[in-house]
Task: structure prediction
Amino acid sequence: MSKLMQGVVRFWREEEGTEVVEWALVGGLIVAAGAGVYALIGARVAVLMGQLQSAIGA
Result:
């Protein structure tokens, strides 16, 4: 087995390594959810901000 594969196997077996992977997945899901929410309401928020600026005379 190559040294690279041995390193990958050792990283996978260590609890600390898997914990890092888990947190990376959680972070990715949070980013994906934020991007989805922004895509859904971003245009509406832009319209509302424009209306607010018009109302206050900015």
User: Anything to note?
Assistant: Residues 15-56 form the longest helix (42 residues). The mean pLDDT is 87. The chain is about 90% helix and 0% strand. Helices lie at 3-13, 15-56.
